[in-house]
Amino acid sequence: MGTENTWMKNGKESRRIKVVVLGAGFAGSSFINSFKGKLKGKDRRRIDLTVIDGNSYHLFAPLLYQVATGSVRDRHISAPLNTTAERKKFRFIKSTVLRVSPERNQVITTTGVVGYDYLVVALGAENNNFGIPGVEEYSVPLKSLQDGRTIRERLFNSLIPEKNALGNGVGVLSPVNFVIVGGGATGVELAASMSDQVMAFSRKAGVRHDGINIFLLEAQDRLVRDAPQEVSDRLMSDMARRGVKVRLNTRIIRLGRNGVELQNGGFIETENVFWAAGVRNGKIITEFGGNHVEKVHGRIVVDNFLRVPAFSNVFVLGDNALAKDATSNNPVPQTAAAAVQEGKFAGKHLASIIGEKMNSHGFRYRDTGLMVATGSYSAVCMFPGGIILSGFGGWIIWHAVHLFKLDTVRNKISVMADWALRDRLMRNMAGPGLN
Ligand SMILES: Cc1cc2nc3c(=O)[nH]c(=O)nc-3n(C[C@H](O)[C@H](O)[C@H](O)COP(=O)(O)OP(=O)(O)OC[C@H]3O[C@@H](n4cnc5c(N)ncnc54)[C@H](O)[C@@H]3O)c2cc1C
Fold first, then answer.
1. Backbone torsion region of residue 112, taken as left when φ is above 0, otherwise alpha when ψ lies between -120 and 50, otherwise beta
2. Which of 354, 386, 412 is the last residue of a domain?
3. What CATH number does residue 161 fall under?
4. Residue 1 has what pLDDT?
5. Which atom of ligand 1 has the smallest separation from the CA of 57?
6. Is residue 358 over pLDDT 90?
7. Are residues 233 and 112 in the same domain?
C-alpha cells in the first residue's frame, strides 16, 4: 500500500510523484480533468496531485458581467473547489501563491512552502491599468465575483426614481453617468446588459430614463479590435440601438473622484467607472525564473509542449503563457477557450510522460470563433471560417454555448432559471428603488 507520500513498486516503497497546479481557473481545471482522465490505474497510485488557489471556487468569468448587472446570481457561476477535490481526488489548498522558485522546485505561498516534481502554472492575468493615475482608486474592475457584486450595487444604488419630477405626473430616474472603459468583448457585453437593466428598471418603476448615460470608451478606432471590421460594425449598431454612447479613439489620461479626464480635453462627470480595458500578468509571472526565462509582454514563452524551456518540469498555461500553435507558429490568444485547450493538452502530455509513452506532436490550437452578447435577444457570433451570425440567432447560440460550458449541472439549471425568471431576480437585486 505505502504511505501518503509513497507507493509500493515491486515490493519496494517509492516516493510518489508530486504534481502541483497553481490556479484552478480555466487552464488549471482543464489540466486536472485531462491529467486524471489520461493516467492509467497503476500510474494514478504514483501521483500526489495538489491544487493551490487563492479562491475556494472556480469562476466562470464569461458570465461575470451578468452578475454585475443583476442578471444571474453570483453563486450560480462559481463551483466550490473542495467539492471538486473530493470528487476528482486531489488535495486542494486554499492559499495565495507569493512566488515560485523553479531552481528549487518550490512554491512559496501564504500558508507555507510546497515542493513539486512537476509544476503547472495557471494563475491567470490581472487587470491592466496602463499606469493611468486614479484607476486603482476610482474604478471598479470586472475580474472577481466581488467586483461583480460591487458593480451591481453601484448600478442599482444609482437608479433613483424621482416621481413626478417633471411636474406633470411623469417621473424620471435621477441623472447619472456610467463609464465603461475598454471596448473589447467584456466591455461591450457589460454596457449592453447595463443598458437593458436600466430600461427594465425604469419600465418597472414607471419612470423615464432620459438622464442616464452609459458611455463605452475605447482607445482604438473600433470595438473588439481583433475581430473583422464587419463584427465591429455590427457591434456598433447594436450599441447604438441600446442607447450606449460609444466613444472610439478616446484615451483616458486620469481618473478622479468626480470623473474621467480624456486626452482630447473632454471630461465625463461620474463616480461610476468600470474598468474592462485589458489584462497583464502579475509579478509572480513577470519575475518567474529571472533572466533564465523569456517573457514577451509579461507572458512566459513556452515550447510546443507548453513547457518552460529552461525548466522542463514546469508547464505554463492560459493567460500566463505565450504559446504558439505547433503547425502555424501563430501565437495563441488569451481566452478561456485557448486556456481550456492548453490545459487539456498539458494534462495528456504529462500523463504520457509519467506513463513513459511518447506524445508525438506539439500543441495545436483550434480557433473556436468569437461570441459577444449585445443585450436581450441579440448577440454577434463569428464562427471559424468567418461566417457571422447576429441578432436573435446569435443570441440563441450564445446562450446554448455558455450553458453547455458552465461547470456543473446545478449551475446550468440555476443560470437557466435566473434567465427565465429575470423580472423576479431584478426585483430582488434592485433593492429599495423598485420596492
Ligand atoms: C469578465 C471576463 C469575461 C471574460 N469573458 C470571456 C469569454 O466570453 N470568452 C473567453 O474566451 N474568454 C473570456 N475571458 C477571458 C478568460 O476568462 C481568460 O482568458 C481565462 O480565464 C484564462 O484562464 P486561466 O486559467 O489562464 O486563468 P483564470 O481562469 O483567470 O484562472 C486563474 C486562477 O488562479 C487563481 N489565482 C490567481 N492568482 C493567484 C495567486 N497569487 N495565488 C493563488 N491563486 C491565484 C485565481 O483565483 C483563478 O482561479 C473573460 C475574462 C473576464 C475577466
1. left
2. 354
3. 3.50.50.100
4. 46
5. 49
6. no
7. no
Give, using CA atoms, the residue closest to atom 21 of ligand 1: 336
Greater confidence, 154 or 424? 154
Distance CA 116, CA 212 (A): 54
Considering the domain architecture, whether residues 171 and 262 belong to the same structural domain is answered as yes
Domain for residue 221, yes or no?
A: yes
Are residues 194 and 159 located together in one domain of the fold? yes
Question: pLDDT tens across 55-72, in order?
Answer: 999 999 999 999 999 999
Q: Which domain holds residue 182?
A: 135-279+369-433
Of 123, 147, 332, 402, which is best to mutate to test ligand 1, by the most ligand atoms within 8 angstroms of its C-beta?
Answer: 123
Task: Please report the atom of ligand 1 found closest to the CA of residue 65.
Answer: 1
Whole-angstrom distance, CA of residue 171 vs CA of residue 46: 69
Of 295, 323, 354, the residue at which a domain comes to its end is 354
84 CB-near residues (< 8 Å, 6+ apart): 24, 29, 58, 92
The CATH number that applies at residue 342 is: 3.50.50.60
CA of 303 to the centre of ligand 1 (A): 22
Q: Which ligand 1 atom is at minimum distance from the Cα of 55?
A: 47
| pTM to 2 decimal places | 0.94
pLDDT bracket for residue 258 (50, 70, 90): very high
Quote the ligand 1 centre to 144 CA distance (angstroms).
Answer: 9
CA of 319 to the centre of ligand 1 (A): 7
Name the residue of 100, 186, 188 whose CB sits within 8 Å of the most ligand 1 atoms, as the mutation to test its pocket: 186
pLDDT digits (tens, 9 = 90+) for 29-43: 999 999 999 998 888
